[in-house]
Specification:
The complex is a heterodimer of chains A (524) and B (410). With 524 residues, chain A is mostly helical. Chain A contains 27 helices and four strands. Helices cover 53% and strands 2% of the residues of chain A. In chain A, helix 2 runs parallel beside helix 4, helix 6 runs antiparallel to helix 10 and helix 8 packs parallel to helix 10. Chain B has a single domain, classed as Alkaline Phosphatase, subunit A, CATH 3.40.720. In chain B, a hairpin with a 5-residue loop joins strand 3 and strand 4.
């Protein structure tokens, strides 16, 4: 109680300082137009937890205050330095499909092999698909357990960021087998690494090869061309430039799209039960176009698989790519409409460091814009950010992800199910709408009152609900209602005066709901 | 007092809904009953539907030459297309729409599209939704600007988007409601309880974007629940259970038939980006067209009398290549077909200046050319159906001048 009062006084003092400096600045704007009022020291721990993590859990604000904001940032940028809790490790280890590569997944869960000369049996296909549901279930469990519990929060944020940047829709054909492996093998390991490695990993992964159709991309009249594999497919080449690298205004033409599609002919999937593939990737020389290509003004000699690597090098080192990534990062971490000067500095750092994502983030997290009061708490959370941060703030140990999974669906952001290759956006224009407010608040109320079965082990976390008998379900594990005073502490005692006034007028059992449904908590 | 100021003032008075205030304030100037409620529903096919296999130019041999495995046969019983006018035919999966064609309440405009030639899904959709091709900075969508131009009192459900998020086409300063679709949307929620909503009403009484969204959400939710209750009381069970687009279309029809205030509605359906295995009479595209056609025909039927005053426009960001690619699919193209349905449509005709599929007439030697700007078609709906004057149409589509040869579809 005492600590809270002191905090409040500190915040008030800090705010007064801010106001004074704003007032002073307003008279000096002509002299120093770029000078910004920084976030007061007292709010800095909460700010980094809101932006580098999915918000604070109980005790986190105090922890960061004790260790220092700078040390927190440093740790988050080097996730391997942060030990993973034993309990989380054990939970992840129990998900066997998480460790399987695309070839193993296909062999174990793929469509049944038809008998010679026979059509595959539709019943058997359906049964295989049913059996394969466990893969997406476990991927979703791993994702949400890590997001809520892992202390390597920035790595989880960046995994979500890059998954959307290199989006794959799990509902398209074979991608229900591979979307989880894609995140595990092509995204998370590189989330804070080099952009070129990330780009290469996505380009070779069966999930991407299938999603954007490149596995069928074939040089017309090549020796391997036959049946449906008999011509160029521009899909991957176009999105690779528009979404993954240069950006739509990156200065490429339709001729470049065609040249790039020709470069990637033959990049495809290994035979399902063959031994010639590398993690499911197979370059088919018989379907490749060996002629020379002019791509973005450079000649790429026809040589086979390596042409694709050369093209990826060109794309990864282009200033347009640096600008595109700089813009996206500044938008994700600072403001929907990111300050151009920051974007400029981030792209420069990207170019200077050969696309070192950690270095670019380091620049971002030490920029005056990131610490500008003007951008404090100004990002409207995506449904994913909102739900994960609410669970973290409530302090519940997430076991059963079903309530979150279903809610993400209702809010228009189902996991691994963004249909289009541009991925989910993170702007308020995309997510702030009347229906969303109604549903978020309803979720907050159910969570705060302990009525969501988040701690209940469930046999089937994702698919259609299956009634379990009492023995199977085990004892009912209730979630305690969230205590509003504790929640206020968790959130750094930083609620606004109007929210505090509204809370005072509200019956105690509803107060925690009000906090989780407040404007301060909808934004970060 | 202009509408914006009025809304602002209204929202500051607690305990009164905009609905009643709005009527009192605006009825003085425009008598609602005199206008007769004209409605517009826009259905967006995201992902670029292959218009050449929707309204098929079967009279041209180039069509069959360009598409050896995915063309729709002109003859052959159930597999064949449905003839429209001796030159064009409808994909057989759209049989649900055929009766409406015969009743002359559906028309198509072919070789229609955006004057901007981008082949990016996202840019092309953005331009069609902002209504300003080639201009990225436009902050709002054209249906939001249209909402501001409609006469009469604004009500919380005057414009409704069916889906969990608000599309670009509806973003802007006018409030737009959105309703979730599917069974989950109607389930009771904690915020339905008065004690909970009273607490949150206190928290969200300001004039900031979150508070405005909250209040719109509350009003829509109450209306929706009231209508669902009526449905239950009418014991209208036995209705066939629908899925996908049919389910959304059914929900839209149910709400619009009951709530006479809904004037603008938007529905989107995806899955049209058929780069591989598009199929012909059957297959991937057919599997998407069937629920679309069935959903639209049920929408028309379920609207009942309101269908007479309704226009349904079906559009997609661009068409697909004339030639099929090497994978039994089609790549991003340019011109496409646009549909217009409704009681006031001069239907039973394929409009537009058909450029033909001969190579020299194709855009960049590969795509159907665009000979009608999509804004011509919508402009005709705004002028003749919603009775907007030239100035208001110009506010909906800034920088656009309707041509004298615009198709006379209404």
């Amino acid at each position: 109680m005492k600590a809270r009062c002191i905090n409040r006084i500190l915040i008030k003092a800090a705010l007064r300082r801010t106001l004074v400096s704003v007032w002073l600045l307003s008279g000096m704007t002509l002299l120093h137009p770029a000078r910004a009022a920084p976030i007061p020291d007292d709010l800095k721990p909460l700010h980094v937890l809101n932006r580098l993590a999915y918000g604070p859990g109980p005790g986190d604000v105090e922890k960061v205050r004790a260790m220092g904001v700078e040390k927190y940032i440093e740790d988050q940028l080097t996730p391997q330095s942060i030990p993973e809790p034993e309990s989380l490790r054990r939970e992840l280890d129990s998900l066997e499909t998480l460790r399987m590569d695309p070839v193993e997944l296909f062999r174990e869960y793929g469509p049944p092999r038809p008998g010679r000369g026979r059509k595959p049996d539709p019943q058997a296909i359906k049964a295989a698909r049913e059996r394969a549901r466990v893969i997406m279930q476990q991927a979703a469990q791993a994702r949400l357990w890590r997001a809520t519990q892992s202390p390597r929060q920035l790595q989880e944020l960046m995994t979500d960021f890059w998954y959307n940047h290199f989006n794959v829709f799990a509902g398209k054909g074979l991608d229900h087998l591979w979307a989880g492996a894609y995140e595990e093998q092509a995204i998370r390991p590189y989330a804070l690494g080099r952009f070129r490695d990330l780009l290469g990993a996505t380009a070779h992964h069966p999930a991407m090869l299938f999603y954007l159709d490149n596995w069928q991309n074939t040089a017309p009249d090549s020796p391997g061309a036959r049946g449906k594999l008999n011509g160029l497919n521009e899909n991957y080449a176009r999105e690779l430039m528009e979404l993954h690298t240069l950006g739509v205004d990156g200065g490429y033409t339709q001729q470049d799209v065609i040249a790039l599609a020709r470069i990637f002919t033959g990049w495809g999937l290994g035979r399902p039960r063959g031994k010639d593939s590398r993690g499911g990737f197979y370059f088919d020389p018989k379907r490749h176009d060996y002629s020379d290509k002019i791509f973005l003004g450079q000649t790429i000699r026809g040589s086979g698989e390596d042409e694709g690597e050369q093209a990826l090098d060109i794309l990864a080192h282009s200033p347009a790519t640096a600008r595109h990534i700089g813009y996206e990062l500044a938008q994700y971490f600072v403001a929907d409409d990111p300050p151009p000067a920051l974007v400029q500095r981030l792209s420069q750092r990207f170019l200077d460091t050969d696309g070192d994502i950690r270095a670019v983030l380091d620049t971002l997290l030490h920029s005056p814009e990131f610490w500008d009061r003007k951008y404090y708490g100004n990002k409207f959370k995506t449904p994913y950010q909102y739900l994960v941060s609410a669970v973290r703030a409530s302090g519940v140990d997430l076991v059963n992800i079903r309530p979150l999974y279903g809610m993400l669906f209702q809010l228009g952001m189902p996991l691994y199910a963004c249909l289009t290759p541009d991925g989910y956006k993170n702007t308020s224009a995309a997510w702030l709408n009347p229906d969303a407010m109604t549903r978020r608040i309803s979720f907050a109320t159910a969570l705060a009152s302990g009525r969501l079965p988040l701690a209940q082990p469930a046999e089937n976390n994702v698919g259609p609900a299956r009634k379990m008998d009492r023995e199977e379900r085990g004892p009912v594990r209730r979630v305690e209602p969230v205590d509003d005073a504790r929640l206020t502490d968790t959130l750094g005692n930083a609620l606004s005066a109007p929210t505090r006034a509204a809370i005072k007028e509200t019956p105690p059992p509803l107060r925690a709901a009000l906090i989780l449904g407040s404007p301060e908590f909808m934004q970060h | 007092m202009n509408r914006r100021k009025f809304r602002k003032a209204a929202s500051l008075i607690p305990g009164m809904t905009l609905l009643t205030l709005g009527r009192a304030g605006w009825a003085a100037r425009v008598n609602e009953s005199d206008i007769g409620l004209k409605r517009l529903i826009v259905v967006f096919l995201r992902g670029a539907v292959d218009g050449l296999n929707v309204v098929v130019p079967y009279g041209e041999s180039v069509y069959y030459d360009s598409r050896p495995t995915i063309a729709i046969p002109a003859r052959g019983g159930a597999d064949a297309l449905i003839d429209l006018d001796g030159h064009f035919g409808l994909h057989p999966a759209l049989a649900g729409v055929a009766p409406l064609w015969r009743e002359r309440s559906v028309a198509f405009v072919h070789a229609c599209g955006s004057p901007d030639a981008t082949r990016s899904h996202f840019d092309a959709q953005d331009y069609m939704e902002s209504g300003t091709p080639g201009v990225k900075a436009t902050p709002d969508g054209w249906m939001n600007r249209l909402l501001a131009m409609l006469p009469g009192a604004h009500t919380s459900t005057q414009a409704v988007s069916f889906g969990p998020t608000l599309p670009r086409i509806f973003t802007g300063r006018m409030p737009v409601a959105n309703v979730g679709v599917g069974q989950a949307a109607a389930r009771p929620m904690p915020l339905d309880r008065p004690v909970v909503s009273a607490a949150f009403d206190r928290l969200y009484r300001g004039d900031d974007p979150l508070s405005r969204a909250y209040r719109e959400g509350q009003q829509t939710r109450r209306q929706l629940l009231a209508e669902l209750k009526q449905d239950m009381e009418a014991a209208s069970n036995g209705a066939p259970s629908a899925s996908g687009f049919v389910e959304i279309a059914d929900e839209a029809a149910r709400l619009m038939a009951r709530d006479k205030h809904i004037q603008l509605a938007f529905l989107a359906v995806g899955g049209w980006d058929t780069h591989i295995n598009q199929g012909a009479t059957t297959g991937q595209l057919a599997n998407h067209l069937r629920p679309l056609g069935d959903g639209l025909s049920r929408l028309a039927r379920n609207l009942g009398d309101a269908y007479r005053d309704t226009m349904i426009v079906v559009m997609s960001e661009f068409g697909r290549t004339v030639r099929e690619n090497g994978n039994g699919g089609t790549d991003h193209g340019h011109g496409n077909v646009m549909w217009v349905m409704g009681g006031a449509v001069r239907g039973g005709r394929v409009y537009g200046n058909w450029p033909g599929l001969a190579e020299e007439n194709l855009y960049q030697g590969r795509d159907l050319a665009v000979t009608t700007d999509f804004r011509e078609v919508i402009g005709a709906v705004l002028t003749r159906h919603l009775k907007l004057d030239g100035q208001r149409v110009a506010a909906v589509f800034p920088g656009f001048r309707p041509s004298a040869t615009a198709p006379n579809i209404v």
